[in-house]
Amino acid sequence: MKITITKSDHSRINEIDFDNLQFGRIFSDHMFEMKYEDGKWIQGEIKPYGPITFEPSMMALHYGQAVFEGMKAYYADENTINLFRVKDHHQRLNNSAKRLCMPEIDEEVFITALEELMKADYKWIPKKHGQALYLRPVMFASEEYLAAKVAEEYRFYIITSPVGAYYSEGFNPVKLTTSESYVRAVKGGTGEAKAAGNYGGSFLPAQKAQKEGYTQVLWLDAIEHNYIEEVGTMNIFFLFDGKLVTPQLGGTVLPGITRRSVLSLAKEWGIDVQERKISIREIIETAENGSLKEVFGAGTAAVISPVGLIHHQGKTITLDQEKIGPFAKKMFDTITGIQYGKLNDSHNWVHSVKVG
Ligand SMILES: Cc1ncc(COP(=O)(O)O)c(C=O)c1O
Fold it and tell me: What is the pLDDT of residue 119?
């Protein structure tokens, strides 16, 4: 597919305070758009960021056929922008699309669209270490039809947003609570897809947790309410002596790209890595007997997020991690080092785009 490029005639970049970036509030000058009609993707174009029009009968609004991705572009030098694990994000987008009966996108189209967008908006990639350009590919049913069925028309966009350093004021451990009344996903449902509706459904329990003073919900399995799954937008890891444990995937957990990176690196460092069922009881017991050393979340936004406290049914365990544990810190430094091109990328995780 040939991508047409229409440049914005008025850049908004001079209005932006790059030292005070709020996550997801500011959008760069351009976006990518592509339409799906008559069984194929057509009209790939880079165009000025701006409103889109649709009719109130647009099917995504009614039946929730919408999936998305969340990834980042990092400033390496004045001619080079690094995209992290772009093929994995593409694969996950297609897996999500398949689960919701939506059309897949060619890897080449996906990567070329991102490359062209980076070239059009390279000045929007913040330069300081820790900052990045957040990339949001999104696909939704655009057909206008009030019938609960698979749509025949879709739109795909990529919009981008410069974001500040997640830890500009130092690491901030999060406080998690389990939820007694709510679940995020059930086997056979849409939990492993990055489907928009999964997030809408999690807002009420998250809001309740926040009112009680917690940062996020630590989701448990929907059947036994016993096994740990993940956190709002992060996968979770538990470090014991020489052993790193994370919940197995299996349909209810989003297969995080950061999770996969953490697992690969930990294995290379000689740690015994286990993807398995892990009960909340096991975590409470090992926290109490001192064998649980570190707990951290892993996701694109924060990369690694230390957990300082877990609450479950009236019991609270605190982790002796004032800021971040040494293992989590080493993981954070290694992954971010690779992302910004400061460390050797022996896994080929970085896709560099020449913009100069
Ligand atoms: C529900 C959920 N789990 C885990 C993650 C972490 O995934 P990733 O590392 O690919 O950002 C995310 C973020 O995308 C998420 O939304």
Answer: 97
Ligand 1 neighbour 174 (Cβ under 6 A): no
Fold of 174-324: D-amino Acid Aminotransferase; Chain A, domain 2 (3.20.10)
Ligand 1 atom closest to residue 88's alpha carbon, by position in its atom list:
10
Q: Is the CB of 299 under 6 A from ligand 1?
A: yes
Residues of the chain with pLDDT under 50: none
CATH number assigned to the domain covering 4-165+348-354: 3.30.470.10
pTM (2 d.p.): 0.97
Segment 249-304, tens digit of pLDDT: 999 999 999 999 999 999 999 999 999 999 999 999 999 999 999 999 999 999 99
Return residue ranges of the chain for CATH 3.30.470.10.
4-165+348-354
User: How many Cα atoms sit within 13 Å of 163 on the Cβ side?
Assistant: 22
pLDDT at 168: 79
Judge if the beta carbon of residue 190 lies within 6 A of ligand 1: no
